[in-house]
């Protein structure tokens, strides 16, 4: 399952995504955690100290390696230089699996030990001073999108992505890459504004969207969220002494998280797992191609000097049958 946590800056989406990752790890589920936010905080929320987070490899810095690996022997992709963030896989492409070892994970992922077992953590990398005036942050998250486009995952496997704040993910097709999107909203008008944007933009793409209320202090907050988002409100989180300790760098054993918050996390997982039966690989592949052609026409062809529409393999559908198919040499 591919799961996104989105929301405005300061809504608590990184905290809640880290709690969900810990919940999955406690059940020993295979997990790849991805920090795709411009403010890189997921590593710290998972318990890494400053020194450990500072040496996490940036996916954006490994883009040539990622492209060369994923390209494989696909004859429609003439070079890694002509691959852009939306380039779809085709016959001969190499695909990523959750639990395997491969050069992309070797270069970009690091294990993080949590209660129950390790998870793989990947980060886009921070927006650095050298990027100012010469690079767009969307080029950094392009490495995440390219990996998601080439990912084959099955039931009981999880990719959890802490997304960039606000509605920035609509700058590409990445918002359609997920089986479930959890939008974290505070019980304020600003808190639900991103929800309205997501709901409007995602309506035509079959995006499964549920709202997670955060920083809820009482029934009035719950009523407010229910009035604003209706049946899309799934669960709410309130004050947590466990989270306060975690934010100070001293998290207790995860089993000591408050029971009502454990219940909320179980509801998130049940909802995410329930979306599996709605998975439509044909639509997923069509959307991938749609956004690739759109990006190719608007900027990709000019940037690469190639006709990127030729990269589309019309007979290829990404689905779980590829999970047991040997990778091309």
TrEMBL record:
One GO CC term, this protein: cytosol
Reading the lineage from the top rank, the first entry is: Bacteria
Entry's Gene Ontology molecular function annotations: ATP binding; ATP hydrolysis activity
Q: Which residues form the signal peptide?
A: none
* A single BP term in Gene Ontology: negative regulation of cell division
Q: Gene3D superfamilies, alphabetically?
A: P-loop containing nucleotide triphosphate hydrolases
Q: Report keywords, A-Z.
A: ATP-binding, Nucleotide-binding
Q: Which residues form a coiled coil?
A: none
CobQ/CobB/MinD/ParA nucleotide binding domain segment(s): 7-226
**PANTHER family, from UniProt?**
ATP-BINDING PROTEIN, SEPTUM SITE-DETERMINING PROTEIN MIND HOMOLOG, CHLOROPLASTIC-RELATED
This chain belongs to the protein called: ATP-binding protein
- Organism expressing this protein natively: Streptomyces klenkii
